[in-house]
Each structure stands twice: as C-alpha cells, then as structure tokens.
Specification:
It is a single chain. By secondary structure, this protein is α+β, with helices and mostly antiparallel strands. The protein has one domain: Gcn5-related N-acetyltransferase (GNAT) (Aminopeptidase, 3-Layer(aba) Sandwich), CATH 3.40.630.30. The protein contains five helices and eight strands. The chain has an eight-stranded mixed β-sheet with strand order 1-2-3-4-5-6-8-7, with helices on both faces. A hairpin with a 4-residue loop joins strand 4 and strand 5. Helix 1 crosses helix 3.
Length: about 200
C-alpha cells in the first residue's frame, strides 16, 4: 500500500523519513520511552535511520505495518510515532516529552483506529507493559475496553517474557469486556510497553 496521510484539527500523521532521524533520536533519549518500549539502548542516530529504512518503508510496501510520524499541523517536526500492524490488528505509539498533554496521541489513535475500521478490521488490539498508566489512559480515552493482563506480544528488550495490560476496541462499538481498567497499583507483575 502507498503511505496514507491522516489529519485532524490537532495532528497530522504522515510518513517518517530520514529527515526525521534527529527528532526520533532526541525523543528516544527520554527515559520513559526507553522504559516502556523495546527501542535499542543506547539509542543512536543510526538506530533512527535503520528504523526508517528497514521498518517504515518496507512495512507499508508489504502491508504488514503502517507507521506514521505524529506532527502538529503546519509543522515538519516529528513529535511521536504510531504504528498499526495488520496481522494482529494492533497498534503501538510513543510521544516525545515536549508534546505530551496536548491530546496528540489521542487524536493519532482515533485516526489510526478509524483507518483500520475503514479497511474492514473488525477490531483493533492495544497492549502496554504492566504499569504504563499513561498508555492505558490513552487507550481508555480512545474507547478501548480493558480485556485483562497476560503475556505481551513483544518480549522485553532482553528477550525475556513480559506481562501486559491488554485492550480491544470493536468496530461495531460494543464493549469487548466489562473489566475495570488497572489503576497502576498492581504489584504482582512488572514489565514495559512495546510500540
């Protein structure tokens, strides 16, 4: 599939390119992004270029993974990244610290979920490593139902299993579960988020 640009009043989603390598590298120095994702550590400019070259373009070309840069309208600066993987109908995202609290990720999630539903997906899956209350808040606000915890689709950076909070949003709007969302005080498991 050719890359598709998605827009709302607060956000523009378009293709990350090599010109975004500096912004990606800068954002990936954030301890919270490192904590909740499986990005390489330390994260170097070469990692950003590899991300763009090996994941973004090939993902669109193969219809396996659609990745967008999260930008504010009228800006070329990359504030974050959101991806939708077609095989599992799941999404992942991260946002640079300076762009948090502005509703950008919420709008990005809404746009990507709408994109998936417009292409026939019956539902979209979300997960984060246990404890990532910020990601859980985004999913909850975007209409996902909390479906429980279990093994993450993506292991920890070191390859070990990770525990995840999981959610689902159905295209028809029916709740996938009536379980309450976690509060972040759960102490029986620990982990990180994989975008």
């Amino acid at each position: 599939m050719l890359p598709v640009t998605l827009e709302s009043a607060r956000v523009r989603l378009d293709l990350p390119t090599r010109t975004d390598a500096a912004a990606i590298t800068e954002a990936c120095q954030d301890p919270e992004i490192a904590r909740w994702t499986t990005i390489p550590q330390p994260y170097r400019p070469e990692d950003a270029k590899m991300f763009v070259d090996a994941l973004v373009g090939p993902g669109w070309a193969s219809d396996r993974e659609y990745t967008w840069a999260i930008r504010r309208p009228g800006s070329t600066w990359l504030d974050g990244v959101i991806s939708y993987r077609t095989a599992r109908r799941d999404l992942g995202f991260w946002l640079a610290p300076a762009a948090r609290g502005l509703g950008l990720v919420h709008d990005a999630v809404e746009l990507v979920v709408g994109f998936a539903f417009d292409r026939g997906a019956p539902d979209v899956y979300w997960e984060c490593y246990v404890g990532n209350t910020a990601s859980a808040a985004v999913a909850r606000r975007a209409g996902f139902s909390y479906t429980g915890s279990g093994d993450a689709l993506v292991p920890n950076r070191d390859g070990s299993p990770a525990a995840a909070w999981k959610g689902l949003r159905r295209a028809d709007g029916t709740p996938a579960s009536d379980l309450p969302w976690p509060t972040g005080s759960e102490t029986d498991v620990a982990g990180s988020l994989a975008p």
